[in-house]
From TrEMBL:
GO terms for molecular function: DNA binding; DNA strand exchange activity. It comes from the Bacteria. Coiled coil: none annotated. Residues 166-294 form the Recombinase domain. It holds the Pfam family Recombinase. InterPro entries: DNA_bind_recomb_sf (IPR038109), DNA_bind_recombinase_dom (IPR011109), Recombinase_CS (IPR006118), Resolv_N (IPR006119), Resolvase-like_N_sf (IPR036162), SSR_resolvase (IPR050639), Zn_ribbon_recom_dom (IPR025827). This is Recombinase family protein. Residues 10-158 form the Resolvase/invertase-type recombinase catalytic domain. Keywords: DNA integration, DNA recombination, DNA-binding. One of its GO terms (biological process) is DNA integration.
Length: 375
């Protein structure tokens, strides 16, 4: 038994599964919790909290629950004596992350324990952990390589490689090989009409004047169009207007087996139904390029802004942060409600305010120290 002194030792538990499918079934997560509790009971350890990480890889350094647990475990109040996981692969599948994690915990006086694995608390035990970690990392690298190899093969055969289906299409199974379904993209007419409408607005607008992404999003939202039940925003309008699928083909695989980006000439292109003519697509791309920030004078795009990060919309039921926008001529800059910017004027009635009018007023009132303090 590990805990031998009068005060019962305490531990944080950590459970993880690597895919969203496993997370949805919850079986592995639930079993890990049971096993951690049984292990702690046998060792005389009080398991005070279990951190659950569904659907994230053990090689990911940015796991929210993992990082929250580490922050608490290494705190000055020394809340726990141990961090317990089912095995090392649940905690981390990256040798550098293992070394970093173990170092942080050791400096805080916290020891790592594993319900399914036993390591000596010695130099040789640490070497054993690193060897195990390297094997786990090697396994995930090989699995990733196999996945990319499979995606490339799928693309080379002309099938949909998976992922989010672009607006205007739906994926349908066209062949079954063993337990695997092979799919291709087909036109979803209801959505395709929306895609064509977006390109038409971007090219000709409502009165012959091309519309920008924000104006298009506002128009669509006001007239009852939805993006599979969701609202349109400037960002997803931009994505639609630049998506190569609508020209009748798309890159099914851009990366080699090790995850390195391939030269464009080596991409595997997959055919799909064409929704937009190349003439229209290229014309819209040219119109958008003329409005790109890089084509506006640098002093306008990058000039100092006093209130960014401080000013918020004052309209009732809003309170969104203020962003900076330029007028059509690019001559003036304005503070603009971010809610209005992303969802259109119907979402908020806050007027635009010129930066060269508001900034001096704020300075005159002596409010400029606020920004320094905020930093």
């Amino acid at each position: 038994m590990i805990a031998e002194n009068s005060r019962k030792k305490r531990a944080f538990g950590y459970v993880r599964v690597s895919t969203s499918e496993q997370a949805e079934h919850k079986t592995s997560l639930r079993q890990q919790k049971v096993d951690l509790q049984n292990y702690c009971d046998r060792q005389g350890i009080e398991l005070i909290e279990v951190f659950v990480e569904p659907g994230l890889s053990g090689s990911d350094w940015k796991r929210p629950e993992f990082n929250r647990m580490m922050l608490l475990a290494t705190g000055d109040d020394h809340p726990v004596d141990f961090v317990v996981a089912a095995d090392m692969a649940r905690l981390a599948r990256d040798v550098e992350l293992i070394i970093t994690t173990q170092g942080r915990l050791k400096r805080a006086g916290v020891q790592c324990l594993f319900a399914y694995q036993a390591f000596e608390d010695s130099h040789f035990g640490m070497l054993h952990q690193l060897l195990t970690g390297w094997q786990d990392q090697d396994a995930i690298v090989k699995a990733s390589m196999n996945t990319r190899r499979g995606l490339r093969g799928t693309a080379q055969e002309g099938f949909w490689p998976g992922g989010t289906v672009p607006l205007g299409y739906e994926s349908r199974t066209v062949e079954i090989r063993g337990k695997k379904e092979k799919k291709k993209l087909f036109v979803n007419e209801a959505e395709a009409r929306i895609v064509r409408k977006i390109f038409d607005l971007a090219e000709r607008g409502l009165d012959g004047t091309p519309m920008g992404g924000r104006a298009i999003a506002e128009y669509l939202n006001q007239h009852g169009y939805t993006r599979r039940g969701g609202k349109f925003h400037n960002s997803n309008i931009a994505g639609i207007l630049s998506r190569p699928h609508y020209l009748g083909e798309f890159p099914g695989n851009k990366f080699d087996e090790r995850g390195n980006l391939l030269p464009e000439e080596d991409w595997t292109m997959v055919e799909c139904p064409q929704l937009i003519s190349k003439e229209t697509f290229d014309h819209v791309a040219a119109l958008r390029a003329t409005r790109a920030p890089r084509n506006i004078a640098p002093r306008i795009v990058t000039g100092p802004t006093l209130l960014i990060g401080i000013a918020h919309c004052g309209m009732p039921n809003c309170g969104a942060g203020m962003t900076v926008a330029t007028g059509g001529s690019g001559r003036y800059r304005y503070y603009k409600c971010n809610e209005r910017t992303n969802r259109g004027a119907s979402s908020c009635r806050c007027p635009n305010v010129r930066t060269d009018k508001l900034d001096p007023l704020v300075m005159e009132e002596g409010i400029h120290p606020v920004r320094t303090a905020a930093r």
